[in-house]
Amino acid sequence: MAKPSIVPVNEERRMTVIEHLEELRRVLIISLIAWALATVIGFAISQWTLGILLGPVHKVIGGQKLIYPGPVDAFLLFFKIGIFTGFVLSSPIILWQVWTFVAPGLHRNERRFAVGFVASAVALFAMGIGFAFFALPIALRFLTGIGNSELQYLPFADKYINFVLILIAIFGITFELPLAMTMLGLAGIVSTAFLKRNRLKFWIGIFVGANMVTPGVDPFTPLLLTAPLIVLFELSILVIRALRR
């Protein structure tokens, strides 16, 4: 008589495609609700946020005010700032939802990094934003210094804020590089030996990518993005090695 097959107690049930789609819908709904509620807060503090965003340009042009051509442009500008601020404020919730979506595909011993994943992602994004504010005055001085004394930079509020928000988003997202690499390392997709062996290729890829994603034509902004990303790349190798032990 054949013995009944014994299923290990720790065997984890795999989710079906339908369950994955339902989970994805749940993640998207919660993330969008969190973003919408945070946008209300972001719009309420948009005047204060605008003062922070104007800091880099004021270092270049002094106390000169920015201009806008249309009567509704100021409202749209504050609304745009509110949406962006709302995303930043709701990012911990969104990141936690992302983790709950990918966690079922991880091993049980890898799920203990949940809090560290969210905390690291928020910290790296904040570091990217902070570094963007460091790079902005340098980029603005170079870009606005092109030409001669017959040209004067009169910044339009909308164009300047678009430039700043894009740069902040680029720096914030690209600073997540070590976290993405660490996740790939934990999943066994990449190894420290592979990263070390192809170190120069990754460095070149970071430099090329920084030139592609940064706005403007100045040579300084891509370099300012490349330098910390290479440092973070090297740190991620150390983190992967430590976590895989």
Fill in the keyword field for this structure.
single chain, 245 residues, mainly alpha, 72% helix, flat
Report on this model:
- The chain has 10 helices and no strands.
- With 245 residues, it is an all-alpha fold.
- It has one domain.
- Residues 5-11 have low confidence and may be disordered.
Q: How much helicity do the residues have?
A: over 70%
The shape, in one word, is: flat
End-to-end Cα distance: 44 Å
The radius of gyration computed from the alpha-carbon positions, rounded to a whole number of angstroms, is: 23 Å
Number of strands: 0
- The tally of domains stands at 1
Could you list the spans in which at least 5 consecutive residues all have pLDDT below 50?
Answer: 5-11
Mean pLDDT: 82
- Main β-sheet: number of strands, strand sense, barrel status? none
Strand residue percentage? under 5%
Write the layout of secondary structure elements.
Blueprint: H1 17-44, H2 46-53, H3 55-61, H4 73-102, H5 114-144, H6 157-174, H7 177-186, H8 192-197, H9 199-213, H10 220-243
Question: Can you give me a brief rundown of this structure?
Answer:
With 245 residues, the chain is an all-alpha fold. It contains ten helices and no strands. The longest helix is centred in the middle third of the chain and has 31 residues, at 114-144.
